[in-house]
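Might I ask for a little of your time on a matter of protein folding? Here, with my thanks, is the record as I have it:
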Amino acid sequence: MPRSALLVDFALALPVALAVSFLIAWALRALFGRRLSLPLSVMTIVSVLGLSAGLFVSGWLFAGLRIWMPMTLLIAAGCSLGLSLLVAGVAVLLRRDGSGVDIAALLHAGESERVEFKETARWNVREDKKDARMEAVVAKTVAAFLNSRGGTLVIGADDEGRPVGLDRDFATLRTPDADRFELWLRDLLATTLGKNAAALPRIRFAEVEGATVCAVRCPRAPEPVFLTQGGSTELWVRVGNSTRAFGVDEALAYVSQHWRPTLATFLLGRR
């Protein structure tokens, strides 16, 4: 028989608690999918805190309970699941609210360090034809926003913020509608920026003054996003109201400063 049963129980309970917390966190991540932005590590910590709260409640309200009793385990697991569901639900709601964008207000405010207007994404207005160079400009702008403080690219508006619509871009697609345009845009970003980076922007459509306009809302990327075109790989960044590529020396210095690890990034599971 152990001389200190309490310590033995704690030694056995610790890895079990971590395993249970991990399983709860993994299940919630699978349940919510991409809607849940919190990483698995954070959800596991939340689940552990829920288990701790459950054990505290068991010891505070009920006399004679021990750690391996069914009621203790049930209360602890219930508190862990409940707290994890609450945190996950709040995170999903906050992300949903944060993904909304008032496109009309952006057009009225004009371009800035975090807002850029593009009249088309595929159609060369001057030459009146489809042009791959227009696609490259869109990819560069999205990469620059991701590599900076984030921002919104509005497609279908001229430099003055007047909505001109996406009809010319739609006409270049097999199916001329917003769904096909978003699918094309995602494919473009996946090809030029990588699949992980392509999943970061939130794409929204709105009718402004009778014209269909697309807003690509880009968060600050958790790691550098490089643009790959032809045989070159470039780092694009927003500098004031402009988008520019950094040379090797500038890129190294910028990456080391912009993605410098902090306590907050560590706790949130970011690099």
Remarks:
- The chain is about 50% helix and 15% strand.
- Residues 266-271 have pLDDT under 50 and may be disordered.
- The two ends are 47 Å apart (CA to CA).
- The beta strands are 115-118, 123-124, 129-130, 151-155, 202-208, 211-218, 226-229, 232-239, 242-246.
